[in-house]
Structures are given as C-alpha cells and as structure tokens.
Amino acid sequence: MRIVIADDDALLREGLVLLLAEAGFEVAAAVPDPGSFMTAVAEHAPDVAIVDARMPPTHTDEGVRAAVEARRLHPRLAVLVLSARVEETFAEELLASGASGIGYLLKERVSQVKEFVDALRKVAAGGTAIDPEVVSQLFTRRPDPLQTLTVREREVLALMAEGLGNAAIAERMTVSPGAVHKHIRSIFAKLELTGAKKMDRRVSAVLRYLGSSPLVTWRA
Predict the structure, then answer these.
(1) Are 5 and 31 spatial neighbours (Cβ–Cβ below 8 Å)?
(2) Which of 96, 111, 138 represents a domain boundary (last residue)?
(3) pTM exceeding 0.70
(4) Same domain as 175, residue 151
(5) What is the CATH number of the domain that holds 195?
(6) Residues 133 and 160 grouped into a single domain
(7) Are 80 and 49 in contact (CB under 8 A)?
(8) Which SS3 state, helix, strand or coil, does residue 105 take?
(9) Does 219 reside within a domain?
C-alpha cells in the first residue's frame, strides 16, 4: 500500500514515516504543505493520503480543503485526516462528498499504533474511520432513534456507511431501487432528518450509525 503524508509538523511527519515503514507500508512522500501534497499525489498515485487538517499558510482549513480537492481529482484516493482537536465543520466538509474511503481522527490516536494502523487499512479498503469524539460532539446525547429502525433499514444504513449508492445497495440486497429509496426516506424520517439540516441528510445518517456502531474501537 502506497501512502503520501502531508503535515507541517516535522516531528510528527517523520514519526509517521517510521511508524508506517515498520508496519510494512510504502511511504512514497512526506511533505509539509498543501501545494507539495497535491504534487505528490499526482506524481505517486498513492492508495491513501494522511493529511493534517491545519496546514500553512494560515493553519486554518488548508489541509481539509487539499484532501477534498485531492479526492475530487483522484476519486479512488482514500484520505485519512488528522486533527489536534475536534473540528466539526472539517468533518462535515470532508464527509460531504461521501463516506467511502474516509477517515477523520484525532492526532492523539497515532500513539495507539495498532488501532491507528487498523483504521488506515480500513480507510484504504473503502471503509470509514471516524473518531468517536467527533461523532459525540456532532450529535447531542438523547434517546437513540436508531433503535426505531427495522432490520432492513439498519441493513440499508450499514451499506450507506460503506459508501454505496442506492443502485449498489439495491443490487447487494437483491431488491428494487425503489424499495431502497423508500427505506432511506423512512430512515431520514425516523432520525428526524426530514427538514433543512446543517449537513447533508445522508452524511448525517451515516454519522449517527457510526456513532452507535463505530467501525474503529479505540482503547481508553
């Protein structure tokens, strides 16, 4: 698996290179800014990009914007974004284009090597790895509406979390696209996602599912 790393913190950047090399990954490039990151992605065609959420020149959202743009230009690229703290807006922006092959983790998780590597492999395989702290801050604690979903609706939601579109879900479940559409409408209604929301309804539904059944379980 070929990886490109983008982080302006030289210590963390080089630490990731060593950690990933020891885990058997090929690090094609490790760069400090969004411009060199985009160049490295175009040159090396990595399977996964690990990107710091905040990078030069302003250290605001350059990393996330670079990750989104890299996925737009290279749709097969999986992206794992690292952030020093929970940035709800960053998570929403990153997931807006779909949940497949996306990860958003706090930097402190890197020290939990096995879990971090597992998350990286999951993202590379097209899965989703969202830090539990991100999910908990995106949604306030209240009675879990996921418990009201039928078995079929939960199955549809799980496939949505894998990044599948309606046609692919219909094929996987051997049902009609119309049936999938009805299930999704019911999911949105039960999760109270029927009106105008800050996030795309599909992204919101997936995040709630991940929050209840996280794809990555971190040790305390």
Answers:
(1) yes
(2) 138
(3) no
(4) yes
(5) 1.10.10.10
(6) no
(7) yes
(8) strand
(9) no
Q: Are residues 61 and 168 in the same domain?
A: no
* Closest residue by Cα to residue 14 from 33, 29, 1: 29
Q: Residue 129 pairs with which residues in a beta bridge?
A: 103
Q: How is residue 203 written in tokens?
A: 């992204």
Here the CATH number for the domain that contains residue 8 is: 3.40.50.2300
Instruction: Report the C-alpha gap between 182 and 159 in whole angstroms.
Output: 15
153 and 80 together in one domain = no
Whether 21 and 69 map to the same domain: the answer is: yes
Q: What are phi and psi of 7, to 5 degrees?
A: -160, 130
DSSP 33: S
Long-range pairs, 65-72, Cβ under 8 A, ≥24:
65/34, 65/93, 66/6, 66/34, 66/37, 66/38, 67/94, 68/93, 68/94, 68/97, 69/38, 70/37, 70/38, 70/41, 71/97, 71/101, 72/97
Whether 127 is covered by a domain: the verdict is yes
* Separation between Cα atoms, residue 69 and residue 52, nearest integer Å: 14
Compute the Cα dihedral for 64, 70, 72, 75 and give only its sign. negative
* Tens-binned pLDDT, residue by residue, of the chain (220 aa): 999 999 999 999 999 999 999 999 999 999 999 999 999 999 999 999 999 999 999 988 899 889 989 998 998 999 999 988 877 667 767 776 566 788 889 998 888 899 899 999 999 998 888 887 776 666 554 566 788 899 999 999 989 888 888 999 999 999 999 999 999 999 998 888 866 454 578 877 887 777 665 444 333 2
76: domain range?
2-138
